Sequence to fold (179 residues):
Amino acid sequence: MNAYEAGDGYWYPSEQDHRAAAVAVLNALREYRASETAMRRRTRSSMEMGESDLLALRYLLEADKAGVGIQPKELAARLGMTSASMTSLVDRMVTGGYVTRETHPSDRRAILLRPTPGADAEVRQTLGKMHQRMIEVAESLTPEQAAAVTHFLLAMRDAVDTLDSESDQPPAGHPNKTR
Fold:
């Protein structure tokens, strides 16, 4: 038994029996997120790329699969980066052999970013087996289970995306609390 199977957690003490299942689900979600974070760290290390570089490469691979190129300003907006930071990221990715710059077909002043065939191959080699295991787990669900998991995850996304108006302030007694 690990700490998550016990039904208690730091944030979610199991004071009532009917909460035990919810606490176990939230703790399992935390355990999954910790494993996913560790996998991303290993991937970044293996590919010698930062988190933003990997996200950029993912967006570029998705666009390439759809048959479109992405301009640096579009990629910067998607990643929430400044123009200067995007230039540095693109320079790193070009130097690393992951991305090419191409002249935009209808605007010769603009460029499009495209992943190299080697980038796609490296991502598939690095992450392919793990993605296959994840697909197998998802495919093992019944349609009803898949619908329940999807509903739960989307509801959790909404729960964490919602900001509480009081969350902008540190807790009472905190040294930075404004009066």
User: Anything to note?
Assistant: The radius of gyration is 21 Å. Helices lie at 20-47, 51-65, 72-79, 83-95, 117-139, 143-161.
